[in-house]
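Researcher: Please predict.
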Amino acid sequence: MNKQPSMTIASVTGHQGYAQGSAYAIETSYLELKDKISDLKCLLVSPEKPEHCPDYIQHIPCKPFSYFEYNLFMIYGLGDLIQTDFCLVVQNDGWVTNGNQWKDEYFNYDYIGAPLPEVAHIENNQLIERKFAPYFFANKDNFPENHYELQNGGFSLRSLRLMRAPRQYNLPMMVYPYSQFQHIPLEMKWSYAKNHVAHVEDLFLCAVYRKFFEELGMQFASRRVAAHFSCEYAPLHNAENIPLSMVLGSHYVSLCTLVGVKKVQLNENVSSLDSITNNQALWYLLEQNHKLVIPEKHNKLPK
């Protein structure tokens, strides 16, 4: 029998406010997988070590950095910090929800993330256009050449050779001029509507250089394999007839974030219990023994 590959559960944030939730994401995922993967390590990169951070999580401090720099870090830097065969990337809003759904077959792929209802048209390693849900569902069984389905990076599995390839092959990242300044202090913002967001790491890996990586022999998970691995957009899972009970993890896109081990804070207003029971992702968390916390500012339930 071949030896099972080694893996690091890692979370990276340049925002100290996300560090504690990121540590909880690592811890929750570790507890779900520690009996499934024999050589399992944990890594947190954040400006400061959060108050709660188990000893088995290695912490490496970093200078604070923006979301733009986060993408640079994940594309060009993460591979230098990983010493295992694979890395499971988690965030404060993306983690392993059901370790019983782990499959060693995931190690057959160099990249797996939650499937998204989004397609990128790429020509010569350049983004031409991003196409979203209406186009995706109308064409999902027959995309044109050079159109690549995206898989989210916030909860994803990556091989070491994929993580190190962008630096090894000196692959440049395309950055359009920012669309506008937003907020005070000033912050640059890019417009998805104008297809000006070409610098996000999952687009870079899944689409911009997808053909290049595949020519090197790297493997990207199919939509169905990815849907068993993770969920971000439940209607896509419904279309594939894959219930959330058969999914390893989820990425919640800030709908909710971890504030403890299997303890989740909702980040949107709740005006009725139906808004929870009718939400597939939230209901699934309850089924997986997660505790939901509604902050007072989001609690709009009738008194």
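Model: The chain has a mean pLDDT of 95.
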